[in-house]
Design goal:
This protein is mainly alpha-helical. It contains six helices and no strands.
Length: about 190
């Protein structure tokens, strides 16, 4: 990833923590919610791995191909499950954006050796500007929408002292939404540095 080393480390830590929480959510969920939590955990850990600053660790040339294949498979999975749930359309966009970033940062395809696009690579800096702009607009809208959904509303009669009807802390819907918001902000930041 391009940009300051400190912001790369912070982004990596944030995405790792989000991925870990989503992985914990899989233990308490079933069916569709478990699939969603798994997809979000994969996205969190994948974003964390991609956010490691290039100045600290240059991924191997084949690493970008692994990202592209992994998130290409995740895109196909999200496409399949989007028939059931509209939230999987968001996973499809996210996985496709990860494939796009991996291809744009790959040496010899979208960037120079070491994954620095725009420093001698064959593609323009940042990949395809129109596509990058569309993805930035999508994630800006997604972050604003998710953030607005986190605004507190009046407590219902079933909520008692911080416990929701769903059970423990891992099943709290506002924490899952906060993780989605975090990953949306992280994806926006990663696209900005592309």
């Amino acid at each position: 990833m391009h940009g300051p080393v400190m912001s790369g480390w912070l982004l990596m830590a944030l995405c790792s923590a989000t991925g870990a929480y989503c992985l914990l959510r899989t233990r308490g969920e079933t069916g569709e919610r478990r699939r969603t939590a798994r997809a979000e955990a994969l996205m969190g850990f994948g974003m964390a791995a991609m956010a490691v600053p290039a100045a600290v660790m240059t991924p191997p040339a084949w690493g970008w191909a692994v990202y592209a294949v992994l998130f290409g498979a995740a895109s196909l999975r999200a496409l399949w499950f989007s028939r059931r749930s509209s939230h999987h359309v968001h996973h499809l966009v996210g996985s496709a954006a990860m494939v796009y970033m991996a291809v744009a940062m790959a040496p010899g395809i979208g960037g120079a050796p070491g994954g620095h696009a725009g420093h001698g690579g064959s593609a323009p800096a940042g990949g395809i500007p129109v596509l990058t702009g569309l993805l930035l607009a999508y994630y800006a809208a997604y972050v604003l929408h998710s953030g607005a959904r986190l605004i507190p509303v009046a407590a219902t009669a079933g909520d008692v002292a911080g416990e929701s009807a769903g059970g423990g802390w891992a099943a709290r819907p506002e924490l899952a939404l906060a993780c989605r918001l975090t990953m949306g902000i992280a994806m926006f930041a990663m696209l900005l540095t592309l």
